């Protein structure tokens, strides 16, 4: 019996402290929600906005990410190891929306916080891996998860939040307060091939 309780506690372990989401002030965001929603009140009692949990491996988190990009064939062991690494190193704030009726993750976004020497040893946030399950689109969940993570960056003391997006998403992100910076709106990448061995 005690082993079962320990395993349940292990699976419900959060990547970061969930109470920080309760502090977010949605009135600070230029986003317009109709009807009004927030991380604390996501618009339906069957939804919850929260940090990623170790047990989300079984709640479709990786399947949701695969709607965004390739995830590969990640095993539970790999997921647990990466979760532990992210939690120990800090600076990783994967935030999800769960449909409590089906125990499935329906939206997610990642805030990665970089420690800088510039701007008086400040913090910079990066918004990554924003995805909403295709069957739940049209319910303001994209806006909700992006605004939640953006306000989280502000709450953590980031001086700036950055993102890369496709051209077709620029207007969406502009409606949430993001701006193209003239002369500084290029995204450049260098991709490294995986070692086949």
From TrEMBL:
Pfam families membership: Acetyltransf_1
Ranges where the N-acetyltransferase domain occurs: 47-197
Record bears the keyword RNA-binding: no
Claim: Kinase is one of the keywords in the record: no
Pathway: Nucleotide-sugar biosynthesis; UDP-N-acetyl-alpha-D-glucosamine biosynthesis; N-acetyl-alpha-D-glucosamine 1-phosphate from alpha-D-glucosamine 6-phosphate (route I): step 1/2
Record keywords, A-Z: Acyltransferase, Transferase
MF (Gene Ontology): glucosamine 6-phosphate N-acetyltransferase activity
InterPro entries xref list: GNAT_dom, GNPNAT1-like
EC number: 2.3.1.4
Catalysis performed (reactions): D-glucosamine 6-phosphate + acetyl-CoA = N-acetyl-D-glucosamine 6-phosphate + CoA + H(+)
Biological process, per Gene Ontology: UDP-N-acetylglucosamine biosynthetic process
Family: Belongs to the acetyltransferase family. GNA1 subfamily.
PANTHER family, sorted: GLUCOSAMINE 6-PHOSPHATE N-ACETYLTRANSFERASE
Entry protein name: Glucosamine 6-phosphate N-acetyltransferase
Species name: Parnassius apollo
């Amino acid at each position: 019996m005690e082993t079962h309780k320990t395993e349940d506690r292990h699976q419900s372990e959060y990547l970061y402290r969930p109470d920080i989401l309760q502090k977010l002030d949605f009135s600070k965001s230029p986003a317009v929600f109709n009807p009004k929603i927030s991380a604390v009140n996501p618009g339906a009692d069957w939804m919850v906005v929260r940090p990623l949990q170790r047990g989300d491996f079984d709640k479709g988190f990786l399947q949701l990410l695969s709607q965004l990009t390739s995830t590969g064939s990640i095993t539970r062991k790999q997921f647990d190891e990466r979760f532990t690494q992210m939690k120990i190193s800090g600076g990783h704030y994967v935030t999800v929306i769960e449909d409590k009726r089906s125990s499935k993750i329906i939206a997610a976004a990642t805030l990665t916080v970089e420690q800088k020497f510039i701007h008086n040893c400040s913090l910079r946030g990066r918004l990554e891996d924003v995805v909403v399950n295709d069957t739940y689109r049209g319910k303001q969940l994209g806006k909700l998860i992006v605004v939640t993570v953006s306000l989280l960056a502000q709450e953590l003391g980031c001086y700036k939040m950055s993102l890369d997006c496709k051209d077709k998403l620029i207007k969406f992100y502009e409606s949430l307060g993001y701006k193209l910076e003239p002369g500084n709106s290029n995204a450049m990448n260098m991709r490294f091939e995986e070692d086949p061995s």
